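Objective 1b: paired records.
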Amino acid sequence: MTVTDTDQLRYRFRGGETWREPWDDYRWLRDHDPVHRVDHPTQGTFWVLSRFDDVFDAVRDTATFSSAQGLTPDSDVMGFFEGQAAPLVMLDPPEHTAMRRLVSRPMTPSRVDALAPTIAAFVDERLGRLAELSGGGSPVDVVEVLLKPLPSMLVAHFLGIPEQDRGRFDGWTDAIVAANSREDLGSAMHAFAELFAYSESLIERRRTDPGDDVVSDLVTADVDPRWITGFVFTMIAGGNDTTTGLLGGSLELLTARRDQRLLLIEDLSLVRPAVDELLRLTSPVQNLARTATVEVERAGVRIPAGAKVMLLYGSANRDERQYGPTADELDVTRNPERILSFGYGAHHCLGAAVARLAATITLERILERFPDFVVDAASGRFAPGPYVRRYETLPFLGVP
Protein backbone atom coordinates (compact mmCIF):
# COMPACT_ATOMS: atom_id res chain seq x y z
CA MET A 1 0.00 0.00 0.00
CA THR A 2 1.46 3.33 -1.07
CA VAL A 3 1.03 6.36 1.17
CA THR A 4 -1.64 8.76 -0.08
CA ASP A 5 -2.86 12.14 1.11
CA THR A 6 -5.62 10.34 3.01
CA ASP A 7 -3.53 7.92 5.04
CA GLN A 8 -0.06 9.45 5.06
CA LEU A 9 -0.34 10.41 8.73
CA ARG A 10 -0.81 6.78 9.76
CA TYR A 11 2.95 6.48 9.71
CA ARG A 12 5.23 9.48 9.62
CA PHE A 13 8.53 10.64 10.98
CA ARG A 14 7.46 12.26 14.21
CA GLY A 15 9.16 14.76 16.45
CA GLY A 16 8.19 17.40 18.97
CA GLU A 17 4.44 17.85 19.39
CA THR A 18 3.58 15.07 16.93
CA TRP A 19 4.85 12.57 19.52
CA ARG A 20 2.05 13.47 21.92
CA GLU A 21 -0.59 10.97 20.75
CA PRO A 22 0.61 8.50 18.11
CA TRP A 23 -1.47 5.66 19.52
CA ASP A 24 -4.58 5.91 17.28
CA ASP A 25 -2.41 5.87 14.18
CA TYR A 26 -0.58 2.82 15.50
CA ARG A 27 -3.87 1.03 16.13
CA TRP A 28 -5.03 1.80 12.59
CA LEU A 29 -1.84 0.33 11.17
CA ARG A 30 -2.16 -2.84 13.26
CA ASP A 31 -5.80 -3.33 12.28
CA HIS A 32 -5.75 -2.27 8.62
CA ASP A 33 -2.23 -2.25 7.20
CA PRO A 34 0.23 -4.19 9.40
CA VAL A 35 2.86 -4.25 6.63
CA HIS A 36 2.64 -0.63 5.59
CA ARG A 37 4.57 0.69 2.58
CA VAL A 38 5.92 4.22 2.75
CA ASP A 39 7.29 6.10 -0.26
CA HIS A 40 9.16 8.95 1.37
CA PRO A 41 10.58 11.88 -0.64
CA THR A 42 14.02 11.73 1.01
CA GLN A 43 14.16 8.43 2.93
CA GLY A 44 13.00 6.35 -0.02
CA THR A 45 10.68 3.34 0.07
CA PHE A 46 10.42 1.26 3.23
CA TRP A 47 7.96 -0.98 5.01
CA VAL A 48 6.56 -0.58 8.54
CA LEU A 49 5.73 -3.56 10.78
CA SER A 50 3.33 -2.65 13.60
CA ARG A 51 1.98 -5.87 15.14
CA PHE A 52 3.74 -7.51 18.07
CA ASP A 53 4.34 -10.91 16.48
CA ASP A 54 5.82 -9.42 13.30
CA VAL A 55 8.13 -7.04 15.16
CA PHE A 56 9.12 -9.69 17.71
CA ASP A 57 10.01 -12.19 14.99
CA ALA A 58 12.00 -9.58 13.05
CA VAL A 59 13.99 -8.43 16.07
CA ARG A 60 15.10 -11.99 16.82
CA ASP A 61 15.87 -12.95 13.21
CA THR A 62 19.11 -11.06 12.66
CA ALA A 63 19.96 -13.17 9.61
CA THR A 64 16.86 -11.93 7.76
CA PHE A 65 16.54 -8.47 9.30
CA SER A 66 20.05 -7.07 9.47
CA SER A 67 21.31 -4.11 11.53
CA ALA A 68 24.59 -3.87 9.64
CA GLN A 69 23.33 -1.30 7.12
CA GLY A 70 22.08 1.14 9.72
CA LEU A 71 19.00 1.55 11.91
CA THR A 72 17.21 4.19 9.81
CA PRO A 73 15.64 3.99 6.35
CA ASP A 74 18.32 6.31 4.98
CA SER A 75 21.02 4.12 3.44
CA ASP A 76 23.51 6.98 3.62
CA VAL A 77 23.54 7.00 7.42
CA MET A 78 26.48 4.58 7.54
CA GLY A 79 28.58 7.36 6.02
CA PHE A 80 28.68 8.83 9.52
CA PHE A 81 30.99 6.00 10.53
CA GLU A 82 33.40 6.16 7.60
CA GLY A 83 36.85 5.41 8.95
CA GLN A 84 35.37 4.22 12.25
CA ALA A 85 34.23 0.83 13.46
CA ALA A 86 30.45 0.49 13.36
CA PRO A 87 28.72 0.82 16.75
CA LEU A 88 27.68 -2.36 18.52
CA VAL A 89 24.01 -1.79 17.64
CA MET A 90 24.93 -1.84 13.94
CA LEU A 91 26.63 -5.21 13.97
CA ASP A 92 25.09 -8.62 13.33
CA PRO A 93 26.19 -11.93 14.85
CA PRO A 94 28.80 -13.36 14.98
CA GLU A 95 30.70 -10.02 15.09
CA HIS A 96 28.06 -8.58 17.39
CA THR A 97 28.25 -11.57 19.74
CA ALA A 98 32.03 -11.32 20.10
CA MET A 99 32.01 -7.59 20.75
CA ARG A 100 29.08 -7.73 23.14
CA ARG A 101 30.86 -10.33 25.24
CA LEU A 102 33.70 -7.87 25.81
CA VAL A 103 31.51 -5.19 27.33
CA SER A 104 28.71 -7.13 29.02
CA ARG A 105 30.54 -8.05 32.24
CA PRO A 106 30.12 -4.69 34.02
CA MET A 107 26.42 -4.59 33.13
CA THR A 108 25.19 -7.88 34.49
CA PRO A 109 22.29 -7.51 36.95
CA SER A 110 24.44 -8.47 39.95
CA ARG A 111 27.13 -5.89 39.08
CA VAL A 112 24.51 -3.27 38.32
CA ASP A 113 22.70 -3.80 41.63
CA ALA A 114 25.86 -2.66 43.39
CA LEU A 115 25.17 0.79 41.90
CA ALA A 116 21.95 1.16 43.90
CA PRO A 117 23.45 3.34 46.69
CA THR A 118 25.07 5.66 44.13
CA ILE A 119 21.82 6.04 42.19
CA ALA A 120 19.79 6.55 45.36
CA ALA A 121 22.15 9.27 46.63
CA PHE A 122 22.02 11.07 43.28
CA VAL A 123 18.21 10.88 43.12
CA ASP A 124 17.81 12.04 46.72
CA GLU A 125 20.05 15.04 46.11
CA ARG A 126 18.10 15.99 42.98
CA LEU A 127 14.75 15.55 44.70
CA GLY A 128 16.01 17.90 47.40
CA ARG A 129 16.57 20.47 44.66
CA LEU A 130 13.07 19.86 43.33
CA ALA A 131 11.60 20.41 46.79
CA GLU A 132 13.60 23.60 47.25
CA LEU A 133 12.76 25.02 43.83
CA SER A 134 9.05 24.22 44.11
CA GLY A 135 8.75 25.46 47.68
CA GLY A 136 6.76 28.50 46.57
CA GLY A 137 4.21 26.41 44.74
CA SER A 138 5.60 26.97 41.26
CA PRO A 139 6.13 24.02 38.92
CA VAL A 140 9.70 22.92 38.22
CA ASP A 141 11.05 21.23 35.10
CA VAL A 142 11.72 17.70 36.36
CA VAL A 143 13.59 16.82 33.16
CA GLU A 144 16.21 19.50 33.74
CA VAL A 145 16.62 18.80 37.44
CA LEU A 146 16.48 14.99 37.50
CA LEU A 147 15.41 13.02 34.43
CA LYS A 148 18.16 14.20 32.11
CA PRO A 149 21.11 14.37 34.56
CA LEU A 150 20.48 10.89 35.99
CA PRO A 151 21.18 8.84 32.83
CA SER A 152 24.03 11.18 31.92
CA MET A 153 25.63 10.40 35.27
CA LEU A 154 25.20 6.66 34.75
CA VAL A 155 26.62 6.63 31.22
CA ALA A 156 29.59 8.69 32.42
CA HIS A 157 30.11 6.25 35.30
CA PHE A 158 30.39 3.23 33.00
CA LEU A 159 32.62 5.03 30.52
CA GLY A 160 34.82 6.67 33.15
CA ILE A 161 34.03 10.19 31.94
CA PRO A 162 35.33 12.97 34.23
CA GLU A 163 32.51 14.96 35.80
CA GLN A 164 33.62 18.22 34.18
CA ASP A 165 33.12 16.71 30.71
CA ARG A 166 29.66 15.22 31.21
CA GLY A 167 27.65 18.27 30.18
CA ARG A 168 28.99 18.05 26.64
CA PHE A 169 27.18 14.76 26.03
CA ASP A 170 23.69 16.21 26.12
CA GLY A 171 24.40 18.49 23.19
CA TRP A 172 25.92 15.67 21.16
CA THR A 173 23.02 13.36 21.98
CA ASP A 174 20.40 15.95 21.09
CA ALA A 175 21.98 16.71 17.70
CA ILE A 176 22.36 13.05 16.76
CA VAL A 177 18.98 11.79 17.97
CA ALA A 178 17.06 14.80 16.61
CA ALA A 179 18.30 14.41 13.02
CA ASN A 180 15.21 13.40 11.07
CA SER A 181 15.97 14.81 7.64
CA ARG A 182 18.96 15.49 5.48
CA GLU A 183 18.63 19.16 6.39
CA ASP A 184 19.40 18.23 10.00
CA LEU A 185 22.47 16.17 9.21
CA GLY A 186 24.95 19.06 9.34
CA SER A 187 24.61 19.50 13.10
CA ALA A 188 24.53 15.73 13.57
CA MET A 189 27.75 15.29 11.58
CA HIS A 190 29.41 17.99 13.67
CA ALA A 191 28.29 16.20 16.85
CA PHE A 192 29.61 12.89 15.50
CA ALA A 193 32.98 14.47 14.78
CA GLU A 194 33.26 15.99 18.26
CA LEU A 195 32.12 12.77 19.91
CA PHE A 196 34.61 10.66 17.99
CA ALA A 197 37.45 13.09 18.74
CA TYR A 198 36.56 13.05 22.44
CA SER A 199 36.42 9.25 22.45
CA GLU A 200 39.87 9.02 20.91
CA SER A 201 41.31 11.34 23.55
CA LEU A 202 39.60 9.33 26.31
CA ILE A 203 41.10 6.11 24.98
CA GLU A 204 44.59 7.61 24.99
CA ARG A 205 44.06 8.88 28.54
CA ARG A 206 43.05 5.42 29.75
CA ARG A 207 46.20 3.86 28.29
CA THR A 208 48.27 5.64 30.91
CA ASP A 209 45.64 6.26 33.57
CA PRO A 210 43.21 3.31 33.65
CA GLY A 211 40.16 3.38 35.87
CA ASP A 212 37.34 1.07 36.95
CA ASP A 213 35.28 1.52 33.79
CA VAL A 214 34.43 -0.18 30.49
CA VAL A 215 36.76 1.95 28.36
CA SER A 216 39.72 1.06 30.59
CA ASP A 217 38.76 -2.63 30.37
CA LEU A 218 38.67 -2.48 26.58
CA VAL A 219 41.96 -0.62 26.35
CA THR A 220 43.59 -3.19 28.65
CA ALA A 221 42.18 -5.99 26.47
CA ASP A 222 43.88 -4.34 23.47
CA VAL A 223 40.59 -3.89 21.57
CA ASP A 224 40.78 -1.93 18.30
CA PRO A 225 40.42 1.78 19.30
CA ARG A 226 37.98 2.32 16.44
CA TRP A 227 35.63 -0.23 17.94
CA ILE A 228 35.95 1.36 21.40
CA THR A 229 34.95 4.67 19.82
CA GLY A 230 31.89 2.99 18.31
CA PHE A 231 30.98 1.63 21.72
CA VAL A 232 31.30 5.06 23.35
CA PHE A 233 28.94 6.41 20.66
CA THR A 234 26.44 3.63 21.41
CA MET A 235 26.48 4.36 25.14
CA ILE A 236 26.14 8.13 24.82
CA ALA A 237 23.64 8.30 21.98
CA GLY A 238 21.59 5.32 23.15
CA GLY A 239 21.77 5.62 26.93
CA ASN A 240 20.88 9.22 27.64
CA ASP A 241 17.51 9.95 26.07
CA THR A 242 15.92 6.56 26.57
CA THR A 243 15.90 6.57 30.38
CA THR A 244 14.69 10.17 30.31
CA GLY A 245 11.84 9.05 28.06
CA LEU A 246 10.91 6.17 30.36
CA LEU A 247 10.81 8.31 33.50
CA GLY A 248 9.01 11.29 31.98
CA GLY A 249 6.38 9.05 30.43
CA SER A 250 6.01 7.13 33.70
CA LEU A 251 5.33 10.30 35.68
CA GLU A 252 2.70 11.27 33.12
CA LEU A 253 1.00 7.87 33.37
CA LEU A 254 1.04 7.88 37.17
CA THR A 255 -0.43 11.38 37.22
CA ALA A 256 -3.25 10.30 34.92
CA ARG A 257 -3.94 7.05 36.78
CA ARG A 258 -4.12 7.89 40.47
CA ASP A 259 -5.57 4.44 41.22
CA GLN A 260 -2.47 2.74 39.85
CA ARG A 261 -0.21 5.12 41.73
CA LEU A 262 -1.96 4.29 44.99
CA LEU A 263 -1.26 0.60 44.49
CA LEU A 264 2.46 1.40 44.31
CA ILE A 265 2.38 3.77 47.28
CA GLU A 266 0.66 1.13 49.39
CA ASP A 267 3.28 -1.47 48.45
CA LEU A 268 6.55 -0.08 47.09
CA SER A 269 7.77 -3.62 46.37
CA LEU A 270 5.45 -3.48 43.34
CA VAL A 271 7.50 -0.71 41.74
CA ARG A 272 10.27 -2.90 40.34
CA PRO A 273 7.94 -5.32 38.47
CA ALA A 274 5.73 -2.37 37.44
CA VAL A 275 8.68 -0.81 35.61
CA ASP A 276 8.21 -3.31 32.76
CA GLU A 277 4.61 -2.19 32.37
CA LEU A 278 5.76 1.42 32.28
CA LEU A 279 8.44 0.47 29.75
CA ARG A 280 5.80 -1.21 27.63
CA LEU A 281 3.55 1.84 27.49
CA THR A 282 6.25 4.50 27.19
CA SER A 283 8.49 2.63 24.69
CA PRO A 284 11.18 5.35 24.67
CA VAL A 285 12.63 4.00 21.41
CA GLN A 286 9.49 4.04 19.29
CA ASN A 287 10.96 2.60 16.09
CA LEU A 288 14.18 1.60 14.38
CA ALA A 289 14.89 0.09 10.98
CA ARG A 290 16.49 -3.10 9.71
CA THR A 291 17.41 -4.25 6.21
CA ALA A 292 15.81 -7.37 4.71
CA THR A 293 18.58 -9.67 3.49
CA VAL A 294 16.17 -11.86 1.49
CA GLU A 295 12.63 -11.46 0.23
CA VAL A 296 10.17 -12.04 3.06
CA GLU A 297 6.40 -12.18 3.28
CA ARG A 298 4.34 -10.84 6.15
CA ALA A 299 0.52 -10.67 6.27
CA GLY A 300 0.38 -11.45 2.58
CA VAL A 301 2.76 -8.62 1.64
CA ARG A 302 6.11 -9.31 0.01
CA ILE A 303 9.05 -7.26 1.19
CA PRO A 304 11.90 -7.40 -1.34
CA ALA A 305 15.48 -8.28 -0.48
CA GLY A 306 17.46 -5.15 0.32
CA ALA A 307 14.40 -3.21 1.49
CA LYS A 308 14.41 -1.16 4.67
CA VAL A 309 11.92 -2.33 7.30
CA MET A 310 10.84 -0.08 10.17
CA LEU A 311 10.05 -1.96 13.37
CA LEU A 312 7.39 -0.03 15.25
CA TYR A 313 8.12 -0.95 18.87
CA GLY A 314 5.72 1.63 20.27
CA SER A 315 2.85 0.02 18.38
CA ALA A 316 3.88 -3.59 19.04
CA ASN A 317 4.00 -2.90 22.78
CA ARG A 318 0.33 -1.87 22.70
CA ASP A 319 -0.95 -4.63 20.44
CA GLU A 320 -4.22 -6.04 21.72
CA ARG A 321 -3.36 -9.35 20.09
CA GLN A 322 -0.53 -9.73 22.60
CA TYR A 323 -1.76 -7.86 25.69
CA GLY A 324 -5.54 -8.15 25.46
CA PRO A 325 -8.30 -5.52 25.22
CA THR A 326 -6.71 -3.30 27.92
CA ALA A 327 -3.38 -3.07 26.08
CA ASP A 328 -3.53 0.76 26.01
CA GLU A 329 -4.18 1.02 29.76
CA LEU A 330 -1.72 1.15 32.65
CA ASP A 331 -1.94 -1.86 34.96
CA VAL A 332 0.95 -1.92 37.41
CA THR A 333 0.14 -5.54 38.29
CA ARG A 334 0.15 -6.77 34.67
CA ASN A 335 3.73 -8.14 34.71
CA PRO A 336 3.98 -8.46 30.92
CA GLU A 337 5.92 -11.57 29.93
CA ARG A 338 7.46 -10.06 26.80
CA ILE A 339 8.04 -6.43 25.84
CA LEU A 340 10.03 -4.85 23.03
CA SER A 341 11.21 -1.69 24.76
CA PHE A 342 14.74 -3.11 25.02
CA GLY A 343 14.59 -5.10 21.81
CA TYR A 344 14.94 -8.85 22.12
CA GLY A 345 17.42 -11.61 21.40
CA ALA A 346 20.91 -10.72 20.19
CA HIS A 347 20.25 -6.98 20.27
CA HIS A 348 18.59 -6.87 23.68
CA CYS A 349 19.67 -3.55 25.20
CA LEU A 350 22.99 -3.86 26.99
CA GLY A 351 21.90 -1.26 29.55
CA ALA A 352 18.51 -2.80 30.35
CA ALA A 353 19.43 -3.75 33.93
CA VAL A 354 20.80 -0.25 34.57
CA ALA A 355 17.67 1.42 33.20
CA ARG A 356 15.36 -0.81 35.24
CA LEU A 357 17.30 -0.16 38.44
CA ALA A 358 17.47 3.61 37.88
CA ALA A 359 13.75 3.76 37.11
CA THR A 360 12.85 1.66 40.14
CA ILE A 361 14.86 3.74 42.59
CA THR A 362 13.71 7.04 41.09
CA LEU A 363 10.02 6.14 41.18
CA GLU A 364 10.26 4.69 44.69
CA ARG A 365 11.92 7.87 45.97
CA ILE A 366 9.43 10.16 44.23
CA LEU A 367 6.44 8.19 45.55
CA GLU A 368 7.86 8.26 49.08
CA ARG A 369 8.77 11.94 49.09
CA PHE A 370 6.03 13.36 46.84
CA PRO A 371 3.08 10.92 47.00
CA ASP A 372 0.72 13.61 45.68
CA PHE A 373 2.96 14.87 42.87
CA VAL A 374 1.52 15.95 39.53
CA VAL A 375 3.15 16.62 36.19
CA ASP A 376 1.53 18.98 33.71
CA ALA A 377 1.83 16.85 30.60
CA ALA A 378 -0.20 19.28 28.50
CA SER A 379 2.42 21.98 29.14
CA GLY A 380 5.35 19.61 28.63
CA ARG A 381 7.35 19.78 25.43
CA PHE A 382 8.49 16.75 23.47
CA ALA A 383 12.00 16.56 22.07
CA PRO A 384 12.58 16.56 18.31
CA GLY A 385 13.71 13.43 16.54
CA PRO A 386 11.86 10.54 14.86
CA TYR A 387 13.06 7.58 16.93
CA VAL A 388 13.03 8.44 20.65
CA ARG A 389 9.87 9.74 22.31
CA ARG A 390 10.69 11.74 25.41
CA TYR A 391 9.75 14.93 27.19
CA GLU A 392 12.24 17.72 26.71
CA THR A 393 10.51 19.70 29.46
CA LEU A 394 7.91 18.51 31.96
CA PRO A 395 6.51 20.76 34.74
CA PHE A 396 6.43 19.00 38.13
CA LEU A 397 4.72 19.93 41.39
CA GLY A 398 5.53 17.89 44.48
CA VAL A 399 2.54 19.19 46.41
CA PRO A 400 -0.31 20.46 44.20
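Objective 1b, second protein:
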Amino acid sequence: MKHGKKYNAAVTKYDLSKKYDVASACKMIQDMKFAKFDETVETHVVLNLDKNATVRDTLVFPNQFKGEKKVLVFCKDDKVQEALDAGAAFAGSDEYIEKVKGGWLEFDVAVATPDMMKDVGRLGMVLGRKGLMPNPKTGTVTPDVAKAVAELKKGRTEFRADKSGIIHIAVGKCSMDLTKVVENIITLLNEVSRKKPVGSSGAFVKSVSVSSSMGPGVWVDYKEGE
Protein backbone atom coordinates (compact mmCIF):
# COMPACT_ATOMS: atom_id res chain seq x y z
CA MET A 1 0.00 0.00 0.00
CA LYS A 2 1.30 3.44 -0.93
CA HIS A 3 1.43 5.97 1.92
CA GLY A 4 1.73 9.74 1.98
CA LYS A 5 4.70 11.86 3.05
CA LYS A 6 3.38 12.47 6.56
CA TYR A 7 2.87 8.76 7.17
CA ASN A 8 6.34 7.92 5.86
CA ALA A 9 7.87 10.66 8.03
CA ALA A 10 6.12 9.22 11.10
CA VAL A 11 7.52 5.76 10.36
CA THR A 12 11.09 7.05 10.51
CA LYS A 13 10.73 8.18 14.14
CA TYR A 14 10.95 4.70 15.65
CA ASP A 15 12.02 1.13 14.92
CA LEU A 16 8.61 -0.35 14.23
CA SER A 17 10.01 -3.86 13.84
CA LYS A 18 10.55 -4.09 17.60
CA LYS A 19 8.04 -4.77 20.37
CA TYR A 20 7.37 -2.31 23.18
CA ASP A 21 5.48 -2.33 26.47
CA VAL A 22 1.95 -0.95 26.28
CA ALA A 23 2.80 2.48 27.70
CA SER A 24 5.77 2.99 25.36
CA ALA A 25 3.74 1.83 22.35
CA CYS A 26 0.93 4.28 23.19
CA LYS A 27 3.42 7.13 23.65
CA MET A 28 4.85 6.36 20.23
CA ILE A 29 1.38 6.44 18.70
CA GLN A 30 0.81 9.90 20.18
CA ASP A 31 4.22 11.10 18.99
CA MET A 32 3.63 9.86 15.43
CA LYS A 33 0.18 11.43 15.10
CA PHE A 34 0.04 13.68 12.06
CA ALA A 35 -3.65 14.12 11.18
CA LYS A 36 -5.31 17.41 12.07
CA PHE A 37 -8.25 15.71 13.80
CA ASP A 38 -8.19 13.82 17.11
CA GLU A 39 -7.33 10.34 15.86
CA THR A 40 -8.72 7.20 17.47
CA VAL A 41 -6.27 4.79 19.08
CA GLU A 42 -6.92 1.25 17.88
CA THR A 43 -5.77 -2.12 19.17
CA HIS A 44 -5.40 -5.20 16.97
CA VAL A 45 -5.25 -8.60 18.66
CA VAL A 46 -4.39 -11.70 16.61
CA LEU A 47 -5.77 -14.88 18.19
CA ASN A 48 -4.87 -18.52 17.86
CA LEU A 49 -8.31 -19.88 16.98
CA ASP A 50 -9.41 -23.19 15.53
CA LYS A 51 -11.02 -23.10 12.10
CA ASN A 52 -14.58 -21.72 12.21
CA ALA A 53 -14.12 -20.69 15.87
CA THR A 54 -14.66 -17.11 16.98
CA VAL A 55 -14.54 -14.88 20.04
CA ARG A 56 -17.30 -12.44 20.87
CA ASP A 57 -18.06 -10.63 24.12
CA THR A 58 -18.41 -7.20 25.67
CA LEU A 59 -16.51 -5.08 28.17
CA VAL A 60 -16.75 -1.70 29.85
CA PHE A 61 -13.60 0.37 29.45
CA PRO A 62 -12.52 2.16 32.65
CA ASN A 63 -11.99 5.38 30.69
CA GLN A 64 -14.65 6.45 28.21
CA PHE A 65 -13.91 8.28 24.98
CA LYS A 66 -17.10 8.03 22.93
CA GLY A 67 -20.26 10.09 23.04
CA GLU A 68 -23.22 8.80 25.02
CA LYS A 69 -25.16 6.10 23.18
CA LYS A 70 -28.84 6.30 22.31
CA VAL A 71 -30.36 3.00 23.45
CA LEU A 72 -33.57 1.51 22.06
CA VAL A 73 -35.24 -1.17 24.18
CA PHE A 74 -37.76 -3.54 22.61
CA CYS A 75 -39.99 -4.54 25.51
CA LYS A 76 -43.59 -4.96 26.62
CA ASP A 77 -45.44 -2.17 28.44
CA ASP A 78 -44.51 -3.41 31.93
CA LYS A 79 -40.79 -2.83 31.19
CA VAL A 80 -41.02 0.50 29.39
CA GLN A 81 -40.71 2.78 32.41
CA GLU A 82 -37.89 0.66 33.85
CA ALA A 83 -35.95 1.06 30.61
CA LEU A 84 -36.57 4.81 30.39
CA ASP A 85 -35.63 5.36 34.04
CA ALA A 86 -32.33 3.55 33.38
CA GLY A 87 -31.53 5.98 30.58
CA ALA A 88 -32.92 4.40 27.42
CA ALA A 89 -33.75 6.95 24.73
CA PHE A 90 -36.63 4.85 23.43
CA ALA A 91 -38.62 1.88 24.76
CA GLY A 92 -41.63 0.02 23.53
CA SER A 93 -42.82 -2.84 21.37
CA ASP A 94 -45.00 -2.74 18.26
CA GLU A 95 -44.60 0.97 17.54
CA TYR A 96 -40.80 0.71 17.39
CA ILE A 97 -40.85 -2.53 15.42
CA GLU A 98 -42.95 -0.77 12.80
CA LYS A 99 -40.68 2.28 12.81
CA VAL A 100 -37.57 0.15 12.26
CA LYS A 101 -39.34 -1.77 9.49
CA GLY A 102 -39.84 1.60 7.83
CA GLY A 103 -36.13 2.38 7.98
CA TRP A 104 -35.95 4.38 11.22
CA LEU A 105 -32.53 3.89 12.84
CA GLU A 106 -32.03 6.89 15.10
CA PHE A 107 -30.33 4.87 17.86
CA ASP A 108 -26.87 3.45 18.49
CA VAL A 109 -27.67 0.11 20.13
CA ALA A 110 -30.76 -2.05 20.59
CA VAL A 111 -31.75 -4.16 23.60
CA ALA A 112 -34.62 -6.64 23.70
CA THR A 113 -36.32 -8.71 26.35
CA PRO A 114 -36.46 -12.44 25.50
CA ASP A 115 -40.23 -12.35 24.96
CA MET A 116 -39.77 -9.75 22.20
CA MET A 117 -37.20 -11.63 20.12
CA LYS A 118 -39.78 -13.48 18.05
CA ASP A 119 -40.92 -10.14 16.64
CA VAL A 120 -37.51 -8.41 16.73
CA GLY A 121 -35.99 -11.33 14.82
CA ARG A 122 -38.10 -10.36 11.82
CA LEU A 123 -36.11 -7.13 11.62
CA GLY A 124 -32.95 -9.03 10.67
CA MET A 125 -32.73 -7.50 7.21
CA VAL A 126 -32.66 -4.03 8.76
CA LEU A 127 -30.86 -4.49 12.07
CA GLY A 128 -28.50 -7.26 10.97
CA ARG A 129 -26.94 -5.22 8.18
CA LYS A 130 -26.21 -2.40 10.62
CA GLY A 131 -24.87 -4.68 13.38
CA LEU A 132 -27.76 -3.64 15.64
CA MET A 133 -29.54 -6.95 16.17
CA PRO A 134 -29.85 -7.77 19.91
CA ASN A 135 -27.86 -10.86 20.86
CA PRO A 136 -27.63 -12.85 24.13
CA LYS A 137 -23.84 -13.14 23.68
CA THR A 138 -23.44 -9.40 23.99
CA GLY A 139 -25.95 -9.00 26.82
CA THR A 140 -28.46 -7.17 24.66
CA VAL A 141 -31.14 -9.86 24.97
CA THR A 142 -32.04 -9.88 28.65
CA PRO A 143 -34.98 -9.55 31.05
CA ASP A 144 -32.91 -7.11 33.13
CA VAL A 145 -33.25 -4.11 30.87
CA ALA A 146 -32.20 -1.62 33.56
CA LYS A 147 -28.83 -3.29 34.03
CA ALA A 148 -28.26 -3.62 30.28
CA VAL A 149 -29.09 0.02 29.61
CA ALA A 150 -26.97 1.25 32.51
CA GLU A 151 -23.92 -0.67 31.29
CA LEU A 152 -24.39 0.50 27.72
CA LYS A 153 -24.67 4.09 28.89
CA LYS A 154 -21.37 3.63 30.74
CA GLY A 155 -19.81 2.57 27.45
CA ARG A 156 -20.10 -1.20 27.28
CA THR A 157 -18.43 -2.17 24.02
CA GLU A 158 -18.47 -5.33 21.95
CA PHE A 159 -15.26 -6.99 20.78
CA ARG A 160 -15.30 -9.71 18.15
CA ALA A 161 -12.74 -11.66 16.16
CA ASP A 162 -13.16 -11.41 12.40
CA LYS A 163 -12.85 -14.31 9.97
CA SER A 164 -9.05 -14.05 10.19
CA GLY A 165 -9.12 -14.39 13.98
CA ILE A 166 -8.24 -10.75 14.58
CA ILE A 167 -9.96 -8.35 16.96
CA HIS A 168 -9.89 -4.72 15.79
CA ILE A 169 -11.23 -2.29 18.38
CA ALA A 170 -11.02 1.39 19.32
CA VAL A 171 -9.54 1.91 22.79
CA GLY A 172 -9.18 5.67 23.10
CA LYS A 173 -8.23 8.97 21.51
CA CYS A 174 -4.79 10.40 20.84
CA SER A 175 -5.69 13.42 22.99
CA MET A 176 -6.39 11.26 26.05
CA ASP A 177 -4.05 11.01 29.00
CA LEU A 178 -1.55 8.25 28.27
CA THR A 179 -2.34 6.31 31.45
CA LYS A 180 -6.04 6.17 30.55
CA VAL A 181 -5.37 4.70 27.12
CA VAL A 182 -3.02 2.15 28.69
CA GLU A 183 -5.67 1.18 31.25
CA ASN A 184 -8.18 0.60 28.47
CA ILE A 185 -5.78 -1.61 26.51
CA ILE A 186 -4.87 -3.68 29.58
CA THR A 187 -8.59 -4.12 30.33
CA LEU A 188 -9.17 -5.34 26.78
CA LEU A 189 -6.26 -7.79 26.83
CA ASN A 190 -7.36 -9.21 30.18
CA GLU A 191 -10.90 -9.75 28.88
CA VAL A 192 -9.68 -11.35 25.67
CA SER A 193 -7.34 -13.68 27.56
CA ARG A 194 -10.28 -14.89 29.63
CA LYS A 195 -11.88 -16.15 26.42
CA LYS A 196 -9.14 -18.74 25.88
CA PRO A 197 -10.90 -22.08 25.24
CA VAL A 198 -10.67 -24.62 28.04
CA GLY A 199 -8.03 -27.22 27.27
CA SER A 200 -6.41 -25.08 24.60
CA SER A 201 -2.62 -25.43 24.47
CA GLY A 202 -0.13 -22.82 23.39
CA ALA A 203 -0.52 -19.06 23.27
CA PHE A 204 -4.07 -17.84 22.70
CA VAL A 205 -2.97 -14.29 21.92
CA LYS A 206 -0.49 -14.53 19.05
CA SER A 207 0.29 -10.82 18.69
CA VAL A 208 -0.88 -7.36 19.70
CA SER A 209 -0.36 -4.05 17.97
CA VAL A 210 -1.66 -0.51 18.42
CA SER A 211 -2.08 2.31 15.94
CA SER A 212 -3.86 5.58 15.41
CA SER A 213 -6.56 5.96 12.77
CA MET A 214 -4.11 7.24 10.18
CA GLY A 215 -0.70 6.26 11.53
CA PRO A 216 1.56 3.20 11.47
CA GLY A 217 1.16 0.29 13.84
CA VAL A 218 3.42 -0.47 16.79
CA TRP A 219 3.97 -4.00 18.09
CA VAL A 220 3.20 -4.60 21.78
CA ASP A 221 5.32 -6.95 23.87
CA TYR A 222 2.50 -8.89 25.47
CA LYS A 223 2.64 -12.22 27.28
CA GLU A 224 -0.48 -13.93 28.53
CA GLY A 225 -0.97 -13.85 32.27
CA GLU A 226 0.93 -10.62 32.83
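DSSP finds eight helices and ten strands in the chain. Strands lie at 19-20, 40-47, 56-60, 71-74, 90-92, 109-112, 156-160, 166-173, 205-212, 218-220.
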